[in-house]
Amino acid sequence: MVGSYRFIIPGPPIGKGRPRGAVRGGFIKMYTPKKTSDWEKSAAMLIGGSWRQAPEDGPVEVSILAAASRPKRLLRKKDYDGLIWKTSKPDSDNIAKCALDALVMAGVIRDDSQVVKHEVWDCYAERDRGPRVEIVIRSIGGVPSVPKCFDGRGDEG
């Protein structure tokens, strides 16, 4: 993959639901909740429709914007028109799990272990746009450049 690819999945972001178990024939069968699997399947269909190549093999970086519908309390005239941080459920790590699983199902990446760097913006949508999940994926190579805050020296001053 050269460059980056962007996918937009319309509709509210869904977080990865906890696996459920059911007893069938004396055995426990684990399954993904319907709401989660439905979102992953529809997102994979949308992504797969625009992905026309073999799955990426190397390390990738993924950026995710999860824009949820605004609640009525944020639709007043005095409220900001752009994105607003959201600190409620579903939380950003579960949204990322769902988005990464959709990328795997769509054949964009072979496994979510290829994602070596990811970031998630969990927000309420702009006043003039609807809820959506935007995913940008980029292949990365070479040696990681770690931010200075992780240089291993702590706060020595």
Q: In brief, what are we looking at here?
A:
20% of the residues lie in helices and 29% in strands.
Strand order of the largest sheet: 1-7-4-6-5
**In sequence order, what are the helices and strands, one letter per element?**
EEEHEEHEE
Shape: globular
Treating each run of at least 4 consecutive H or I residues as one helix, how many helices?
Answer: 2
Mean pLDDT rating: 92
Structural class, from secondary structure content? alpha+beta
Low-confidence stretches: none
Number of strands: 7
Percent of residues in helical segments? 10-25%
Radius of gyration: 18 Å
Tell me the major beta sheet: 5 strands, mixed
Distance between the termini: 41 Å
Strand content: 25-35%
